[in-house]
Automatic annotation (TrEMBL), chain A:
Organism: Streptomyces pseudovenezuelae
Family according to the record: Belongs to the binding-protein-dependent transport system permease family.
Subcellular location: Cell membrane; Membrane
Predominant cellular place of this UniProt entry's protein: membrane
UniProt-recorded name of the protein: Osmoprotectant transport system permease protein
Ranges where the ABC transmembrane type-1 domain occurs: 31-210
Keyword Hydrolase attached: no
Alphabetized InterPro entries for the sequence: ABC_transp_perm/SBD, MetI-like, MetI-like_sf
PANTHER family the record matches: GLYCINE BETAINE/L-PROLINE TRANSPORT SYSTEM PERMEASE PROTEIN PROW (PTHR30177), OSMOPROTECTANT IMPORT PERMEASE PROTEIN OSMW (PTHR30177:SF4)
Transport among keywords: yes
UniProtKB/TrEMBL annotation, chain B:
Chief location category: membrane
Regions that span the bilayer: 31-55, 67-86, 92-112, 154-178, 190-208
Protein name listed in UniProt: Osmoprotectant transport system permease protein
SUPFAM superfamilies, per database record: MetI-like
Domain ABC transmembrane type-1: 27-208
Pfam families recorded: BPD_transp_1
Compartments, as annotated in UniProt: Cell membrane; Membrane
Gene3D superfamilies found in the cross-reference section: MetI-like
Keywords per UniProt: Membrane, Transmembrane, Transmembrane helix, Transport
Domain of life: Bacteria
Keyword Nucleus: no
InterPro entries linked to this entry: ABC_transp_perm/SBD, MetI-like, MetI-like_sf
Family note: Belongs to the binding-protein-dependent transport system permease family.
Organism: Streptomyces pseudovenezuelae
Amino acid sequence: MTAPPDDCLARNEWICGEYLTTRRHILLDAVLQHLQLTAISVLIGLALALPLAVVARRWGWAAGPVLAVTTILYTIPSLAMFSLLLPVYGLSKSLVVAGLVLYSLTLLVRNILAGLRAVPAETRQAARGLGYGPIRLLLTVELPLALPAAMAGLRIATVSAVSLVTVGAIVGFGGLGNLIYAGMNTYFKAQVLTASVLCVVIAIVADLLLLAVQRLLTPWTRAARG
Amino acid sequence: MKTLTDAWDWLTDSAHWSGDDGIWHRLAQHLVLTVVCLVISCLIALPVALVLGHLGKGGALAVNISNIGRAVPTFAVLVLLLLTPIGKWGEGPTVVALVLFAVPPLLTNAYVGMREVDRSVVQAARGMGMTGRQMLFQVELPLSLPMIMNGVRIAAVQLVATATIAALAGGGGLGRIITAGFNLADTAQVVAGAVLVAVFALVVEGIFETAERLSPRWARGER
């Protein structure tokens, strides 16, 4: 019998360089799953939210029901949401994605709709006076002007999704949440802290990236301010 | 469809309502956790937000704290707390995590509400010779009440959600019915627990909605 090694893993310390080097692959896999789940969910959410917001803007009567349903969806706690989807999707990645799509959808619809509603009536009338049809008006005038509000929604939705993916650990597809869940059951401090910090880092980096994209897409907002 | 009828059968079985793992006990735990932590969070966040808002200081902090709160996963905080010495006293990690996540929306909304009070009204109050304290309690606080209540409502919904996730880290509350269902691979129980949690959350939201509708017009804001 060799004596157990006396390193930070054996001492179960919170911060452990040994953990980072020996579990590099596990961490990388978890981060990749985390990014994948977040990206797919937010993109599907965006693809659904955009037409919903446009419909709610064009036909006023649709706005009430759309906002009411999304508010109800958003009120349901994440763990319950994943559980309600269990009979439909089983223990799968799709279940986590579906749950996250519903949350992103809510945040995106609200923000895009707010952005579309904030387009000044004079601007729309001016475009119409120049002979813009409804589709050209939407694509070249209304949507670009709604972009800052939509991007704000996209940033909130992405950051929330990064954080909510961890709850997916209940069905085994939680990205870094899986490591946190496993670390909790084995009392593995370094694993829980490392995975938690990585979650926050992913959220911050994603937020900053989207902020940069927003700046690139809406140069006029900077010109007006500066 | 079969899962739904199974979940209904699970819910209507009186054996599942009594005892320490029963629905009544879990419901009471969830309710107590939510109410107690909401009161604690309000006692911490509102005085700070009102004073900062009155003085017009610390705005960046009060607004950014909400964004930071959103980036930190609830589940991660619960597990981290569980592994610290706090984890040894029963519901300790749950209470601390619940308060941590309820404070940011309270702080941000109350602060923004205080700052959005029409400056000319505040100046008029000062011109009438009101002291700082009188201005805070008789002018700024009543005018920012709709935003403050909006913060309380967001915090309450957040508390219900966090208390549910607490079950993953061994905390009490309705979430335990869901996690127990997962451990037993009993889909009917998982769905039944989820329905209970969802209804609980919607009832909480509904209570605030009703309170807002019944409140006098000045306290309702523009919405």
